[in-house]
Automatic annotation (TrEMBL):
Occurrences of domain Gfo/Idh/MocA-like oxidoreductase bacterial type C-terminal (ranges): 204-422
Region forming the signal peptide: none
GO molecular function term, any single one: nucleotide binding
Residue span(s) of domain Gfo/Idh/MocA-like oxidoreductase N-terminal: 41-164
InterPro entries xrefs: Gfo/Idh/MocA-like_OxRdtase_N, Gfo/Idh/MocA_oxidrdct_glycsds, Gfo/Idh/MocA_OxRdtase_bact_C, NAD(P)-bd_dom_sf
Native source organism of the sequence: Chitinophaga eiseniae
Protein name stated in the entry: Gfo/Idh/MocA family oxidoreductase
């Protein structure tokens, strides 16, 4: 009996000594892939509509974040956002009616901006100044100078900024762009974009304002337009908000879908820090479509075919890309393996973890940073300026102004009301 007690005592002493040197990793305690709450990134959502709901679910699926706050001018949207989130996460998410309250919180590391386009620039600039990293939906802004202010603010305050151009994290677009950049279809001569036209004048009738919707705050930097349910649908509606189609609130299909497809054109041409030098509105003659010309001679035209896609046309073939689909001519190009010795673009197969990784590393999100988003947003805005003025324009992508056209230069910025100037 004495020997057994001595042996047990010695075993416990040895075990205690070993415990000094062995620290169990978190995944052993919480299962494979487990990330302790203290290691998760705390984010707040600005906007609680359809797009925000999709982003909420995608960020939650990474299992790398805690969503601690959400702000929206429509209280029912805030309530529904938090209720759905509570079914996935136990940690409390607090709701606000004013996004600035989220920016004041020291425990928030970054924000996801998923509001109507007319708010993006103001919110992003204020978020950067408040020390928050930023994921902002596309298009970044309605005007060139607004998106330039966003990119400059991210740089000034050292913030990680990811543009919501998530097509860059999809295989078909990455493969198509690498084929283009490596010359598989020869020299690029033409690009055809199919997205749709620019915005139309506001013409919606006034409707009764819901009691829990702060319309003045929804308008924010904009001049007054009356409330209509199509602009901010009831939370239970399946309708996507139609503010995007009206001038001053959105940029029409030209910006809404153009921010996706012009983005891929810029990527394929390696123009993420530049842009076209000439823009021609449709004239029914020499330029039947909205036309952009790049310094290297590539011509890009916008066709409204009803599809949302992009076609690169080269001297040896062509490539058509849309979501979930890649067509090549010659057909064998579709499955070509791009080797490490060739031109490669940044690999991202998850736009959201790409952003979170950059936050952890304090690095620039290579796939779609603020400057990239600004340049794509600018292409959309330049086309809408050409639509409005109905005349050819010459653009300097380095100086970011028009050549000898003061009237066009005035449209590079829009008036922001009162306290919301940036």
């Amino acid at each position: 009996m004495s020997k057994k007690i001595t042996s047990r005592r010695k075993f416990l002493q040895n075990a205690a000594a070993l415990s000094t040197f062995f620290i169990l990793p978190r995944h052993v305690l919480g299962g494979k892939g487990f990330l302790a709450p203290s290691d998760r990134i705390n984010i707040g959502f600005i906007g609680a509509g359809h797009q925000a709901i999709g982003l909420r679910d995608r960020f939650t699926a990474t299992d790398q974040v805690e969503i601690l706050a959400v702000a929206d001018v429509y209280q029912r949207k805030v309530d529904e956002f938090i209720k759905a989130l509570g079914e996935k996460r136990g940690k409390a998410c607090k709701g606000y009616g004013d996004f600035r309250e989220i920016l004041q919180r020291k425990d928030i590391d970054g924000v996801v901006i998923a509001t109507p386009d007319h708010w993006h620039a103001v919110m992003a600039v204020k978020a950067a100044a408040a020390g928050k990293d930023i994921y902002c939906e596309k298009p970044l802004a309605l005007s060139v100078k607004e998106s330039r202010a966003m990119a400059d603010a991210a740089k000034k305050y050292g913030r990680v900024f990811q543009t919501g151009s998530m097509q860059r994290s999809a295989r078909e677009f990455r493969q198509g762009v690498e084929l283009v950049r490596n010359g598989y279809i020869g020299d690029i001569k033409e690009i055809k974009i199919s997205v749709g036209d620019g915005p139309r004048p506001f013409d919606l009738a006034a409707e009764t304002l819901p009691a829990d919707l702060n319309w003045e705050m929804w308008l924010g930097p904009n001049e007054y337009v009356p409330y209509n349910n199509k602009l901010n649908p009831y939370p239970s509606a399946s309708l996507w908000a139609e503010w995007r189609y009206y001038k001053g609130l959105g940029g029409g299909f030209q910006a809404d879908w153009g921010a996706h497809m012009y983005d891929i054109a810029q990527w394929g041409l390696n123009m993420d820090h530049s842009g076209p030098v000439e823009i021609y509105p449709p004239d029914g003659q020499e330029h039947p479509y909205l036309t952009y010309v790049y310094q290297n001679g590539v011509v890009m035209t916008q066709h409204d075919t009803g599809k949302k896609n992009i076609e690169f046309i080269g001297t040896k073939g062509n490539i058509v890309i849309e979501r979930g689909k890649l067509e090549t001519n010659p057909s064998a190009l579709r499955d070509t393996v791009i080797s490490d010795g060739q031109q490669r673009v940044h690999f991202s197969d998850n736009h959201y973890t790409d952003f979170l990784s950059a936050m952890r590393d304090r690095s620039k999100p290579v796939v779609a940073d603020a400057e990239t988003g600004h340049r794509t947003s600018s292409v959309c805005a330049l086309g809408n300026i050409a639509y409005e003025l109905k005349r050819p324009l010459k653009w300097d992508p380095a100086m970011e102004n028009f050549l000898n056209d003061k009237e066009a230069d005035q449209l590079l910025m829009r008036k922001l009301k009162g306290e919301w100037t940036i």
